[in-house]
Amino acid sequence: MLRSNPNVQNEYELVCIEELVHPDHPLRKVHKHIDFSFILDLVRPYYCEDNGRPSADPIMLFKMLLIGYLDGIRSERRLEREVFSNNAYRWFLGLGLKDRVPDHSTLSYFRERLQEGDVLQQIFDRVVLLAIQHRLVAGRVLITDSTHLKANANKRKFVQEEVTKSTKAYMEELDEAIRADREAHGKKPLKPREEVEETKLTKVSTTDPESGYMVRDGKPEGFFYLDHRTVDHKYNIIMDVHVTAGNVHDSVPYIERLEHIIKKFKFEKTLEAVALDAGYFTSHICKKLQDKKIYAVIGGRAFTPVKGLMAKWRFKYDAENNVYICPQKHELKYTTTDREGYRQYKSDPNHCANCPMLKECTRSRNHQKVITRHVWQDSKEWVKQNGRSKSGKYLYRLRYQTIERSFADAKELHGLRYCRFRGRNKVQQQALLTALCQNIKKIANILAKRAG
What does the alpha-carbon distance between residue 141 and residue 272 come to, in Å, rounded to a whole number? Predict the structure, then answer.
């Protein structure tokens, strides 16, 4: 018999809020296995002890922020309404059915307080240390990549400005390597590098000037930020989050962030290998990883030779004699090392003039073939060799199960596809809170499985 109940529930009932939360609700695992009491010690310096009215509980406000990021609630006004009507949220926050939910303005003020003194970064580090304590982090293999976040800015609202190009941080190290290489080959040292500020014309957003205009193959064009993230391979715990403008190359902050992780979490004796995308395949990164004796696996780049000319790999390098051998078995001898750190190997024009492969080899007027080799090329070839090994192929495949999945979850489940705020510091806060909730959720799930 068909029937319906048109009445709205408006009777008074004596219930316990604990009974209104589903036994398998994810917040139950977080409540049971994660202790947030350490937050009080971190925020205490920013609260007045002797006077003023009593503040809202910082732990409750942080949990409220955590709920918003766990369930992808982008608006703090909407979050206030959701907490008001959701019994599971009230139970997790320690609010009764009649208790007043903190106002969205209070939540926004607390979020801004977390930026003071790097409090949010300290909370993130404490959660990572909790994962290490429970043996959820091995510290043996670290995997790094970046993803683009659409800035809260219209790509059509910009001005053209001349921006000074930042000099590479490793220039002093490269200059020393060039000096040593020229000395080893009996060449005179080059003159000291002149500090010339190079400027280029670039688009700067009038809405969010700290974002960067990104133009990459296969990527959307516009104003973006980049979220550089490093995860541990064991349980995919996020170890570090660093946000830059969208026009900053992936390789620029890598070495600094890697050293930051090693020092903070004391991985000097445990870290064995890293796996990286092709964007990190630079001479400097390969050299630093080899110097640190870290087994590096980096995706290779496909270089397309000039149409009609043979590829560089067809010229074999003879390390013992420091020469290149062309397909016709002629030698290209070392001549000099230039300012950019490239050794130049040149052929004998007398041999090349009558070579049957001249048209496939070079188009120079003097019939001379020139091949360059970086002073740190040995490190790049060491990384390439690692990638061809069985263990290297296995490590590179881990990227899809770890860092790629971490980004996918962050964007699909936790709202990281778009920037909620403007300015690098606030976007860094959003990325940190997203990574924080991912770590907390993973730690709680694993500990719940262990507990049966």
Answer: 6
